TrEMBL record:
Subcellular location field: Cytoplasm, Nucleoid
Protein name, UniProt field: Transcriptional regulator MraZ
Entries under SUPFAM superfamilies matching the protein: AbrB/MazE/MraZ-like
A Pfam family: MraZ
Amino acid sequence: MFLGTHFPKLDEKGRFFLPAKFREELAEGLVISRGQERCLTIWTVEAFAEHARSMSGPSISRRVRDFQRMLAAGASNEVPDKQGRITIPSELRRYAGLEKEIAVIGAFERVEVWDLEAWEQYQAEQEQAFADMDNFPDDEQ
């Protein structure tokens, strides 16, 4: 499980150091993909495969196919280097608006990578709604 918020910086080659507490689980390889709200998601290879399986089936809707295409077309298999750095492909950096200042957040089964300013804005917008939540409606769980 991935938890916490970290603030590494992207270098000129589009690399950043994975937070130390995430490195062991991601050391053998990971998948970086587009996420919603213009962030990126980092999955273990197994978790990404499970996520993909959960969206497959012979009678899927066009909306699901569109989502699958966008997710898979933007996904990239990566392996951290010996120092624990990963490279974010330029297309994914453009999608998420990543330049130098980033936020890396644990989101349970995945890690999200945000442009720092976008993360701060999102967090500010969501804080009151989060504080006011009792629990999720049945259809949101």
